[in-house]
Amino acid sequence: MKIYNVILSGGVGSRLWPLSRKQHPKQFLKLFSGKALFELTAERNQKVVDQIMVVGNTDHIEWSQQLLNDISLPKSFITETAARNTAAAIAFAALAVEPDDVLIITPSDHLIQNQDAYEKAIKEAVELAKKDFLVTFGVVPSKPETGYGYIEYEGKDVLSFREKPNTETAQEFLERGTFLWNSGMFCFKAGVLLDELKKYQPEVFDKCNEIWKTSENQCLDAEASLQIPSISIDYAVMERSKKIKVVPAHFRWNDLGSFESLYDYLRSTGHPVDENGNMVIGTEIFTAFVGLKDSILVHTPDALLILHKEKSQDVKKVYNQLEKYKSTLR
Question: Which of 109, 159, 172, 240 has the most CB atoms at less than 10 Å from its CB?
Answer without folding.
Answer: 109
